[in-house]
């Protein structure tokens, strides 16, 4: 399924230098488009729109195209003429080889007063008795129908026969609607192309089998043909295998986990001397199938051609005898121990001093004194300890000394 996108419109707007907002004419024919969309939002100034030879099943999303004068929907899957009331400037409508079976839907075109040309050749409704007279009388402003000019004589004749052909056309339209509803109820769903199908045989079968000429049959044929074409192109031009990247362009390693294994990295605290990587690899995988390579900045493990690579938060001693790998016999986990290159050495706390076996107690007299004798603090000899300088003698005041009460004393 091909969708109408801005890139597709811009690609088709080369004649307008790729500008979409001012686009007045665009051709989107033979694009396998299934739905009309985006045009009423991106191309408001469209005057001519070519959508022939697609698989569009409904007229929609064109009501805002007020300036559109020509709409070509030939060779599509249109079943009902609808949603054109907003196209005020529409002058020409081409619905050649579609599936319009209910001719009563042409009455919706009465609101398009500028409509002068209408093409319905190849639709089921053209086989009804009185088809042309019904359309000519229903759309009095029409000038040409199916490429033939409508004369004044033909218009008068259509007005005279309208009362007679009207019930005939309505009955035929209702019969076609009922028959189509019954076919839709019994029609199988669209089958997809099997993955292991032989493309050459499927293509021969596709062109040899006869399909129903219905909107659904045409849509299925288009999708099946597109699937066969896409498969053949993929087979002839396979997509290039994207090389696996384990290193960045500057040589730095990347984190890779192709096997989606669970893992845990322990010892990331600065106080821990080792980094320990625990990988939940396959439990019953033989250890000989595991390839381990430890680098100072990363570790790499290959199991069953799948790579696990992890960038380490700090450098490790890859060649240290303490660097080792162990395998759990119960869970199968791979546990890799990697000593750090620059571990943080912390000073051990000093051992507390041992307390004396017997506590030293102060002597307290049995009966405390009634008052404290300050004179007893110094011995009776009034001598100073050795090495203590003697107190200097007080100096006499000068003759001009004035004792000021406001000045605090020196202590």
Radius of gyration: 50 Å
Mean pLDDT: 84
Helix segment count?
A: 6
Q: How does the overall form come out from the CA principal axes?
A: elongated
Strand order of the largest sheet: 1-2-3-4-5-6-7
Number of strands: 15
Low-confidence stretches: none
- The percentage helix is 10-25%
- Strand content range: 5-15%
Q: What's the story with the biggest beta sheet?
A: 7 strands, mixed
Describe this structure in words.
The structure is a single chain. With 411 residues, the chain is an alpha/beta fold. Helices cover 21% and strands 14% of the residues. It is built from 6 helices and 15 strands. The strands form 3 sheets. A 7-stranded mixed β-sheet has the order 1-2-3-4-5-6-7, with helices on one face. The chain has a 4-stranded antiparallel β-sheet with strand order 8-13-12-11, with no helix packed on it. A 4-stranded antiparallel β-sheet has the order 9-10-15-14, with no helix packed on it. A hairpin with a 7-residue loop joins strand 9 and strand 10. Helix 5 packs antiparallel against helix 6. The longest helix is centred in the middle third of the chain and has 35 residues. The termini are far apart.
Q: Care to give the gist of this entry?
A:
It is built from six helices and 15 strands. The chain is an alpha/beta fold and 411 residues long.
Helix-strand layout with pairing:
Layout lengths: L5 H6 L13 E3 L11 H4 L5 E3 L19 E3 L19 E3 L22 E3 L11 H8 L5 E2 L2 E2 L2 H35 L12 H10 L6 H22 L19 E2 L5 E4 L7 E6 L10 E5 L3 E6 L2 E6 L12 E4 L6 E6 L72
Parallel strand pairs: 1-2, 2-3, 3-4, 4-5, 5-6
Antiparallel strand pairs: 6-7, 8-13, 9-10, 10-15, 11-12, 12-13, 14-15
């Amino acid at each position: 399924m091909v969708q109408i996108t801005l890139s597709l419109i811009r690609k088709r707007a080369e004649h307008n230098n790729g500008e979409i907002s001012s686009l007045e004419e665009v051709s989107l024919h033979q694009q396998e488009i299934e739905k009309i969309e985006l045009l009423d939002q991106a191309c408001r100034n469209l005057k001519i729109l070519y959508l022939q030879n697609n698989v569009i099943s409904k007229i929609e999303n064109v009501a805002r195209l007020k300036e559109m004068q020509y709409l070509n929907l030939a060779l599509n899957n249109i079943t009902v003429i609808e949603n054109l009331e907003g196209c005020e400037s529409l002058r020409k409508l081409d619905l050649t080889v579609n599936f319009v079976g209910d001719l009563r839907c042409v009455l919706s075109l009465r609101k398009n007063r500028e409509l002068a040309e209408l093409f319905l050749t190849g639709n089921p409704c053209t086989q009804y008795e009185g088809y042309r007279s019904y359309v000519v009388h229903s759309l009095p402003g029409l000038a040409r129908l199916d490429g033939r000019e409508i004369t004044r004589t033909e218009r008068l004749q259509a007005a005279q026969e309208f009362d007679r052909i009207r019930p005939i056309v309505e009955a035929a339209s209702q019969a076609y609607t009922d028959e189509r509803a019954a076919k839709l109820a019994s029609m199988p769903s669209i089958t997809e192309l099997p993955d292991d199908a032989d493309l050459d045989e499927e293509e021969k079968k596709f062109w040899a089998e006869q399909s129903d000429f219905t909107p659904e049959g045409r849509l299925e044929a288009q999708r099946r043909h597109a699937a066969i074409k896409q498969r053949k192109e993929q087979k002839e031009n396979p997509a290039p295998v994207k090389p696996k990247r384990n290193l960045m362009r500057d040589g730095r390693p990347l984190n890779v986990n192709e096997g989606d294994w669970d893992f845990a990295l322990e010892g990331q605290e600065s106080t821990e001397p080792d980094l320990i990587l625990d990988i939940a690899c396959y439990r019953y995988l033989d250890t000989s199938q595991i390839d381990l390579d430890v680098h100072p900045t990363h570790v790499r493990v290959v199991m069953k051609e799948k790579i696990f690579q992890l960038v380490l938060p700090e450098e490790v001693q890859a060649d240290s005898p303490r660097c080792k790998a162990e395998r759990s016999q119960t869970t199968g986990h791979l546990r890799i121990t990697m000593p750090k290159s620059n571990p943080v050495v912390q000073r051990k706390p000093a051992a507390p001093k041992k307390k004396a076996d017997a506590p030293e107690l102060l002597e307290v007299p049995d009966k405390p004194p009634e008052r404290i004798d300050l004179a007893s603090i110094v011995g009776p000899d009034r001598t100073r300890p050795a090495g203590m300088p003697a107190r200097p003698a007080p100096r006499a005041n000068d003759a001009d000394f004035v004792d000021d009460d406001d000045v605090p004393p020196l202590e």
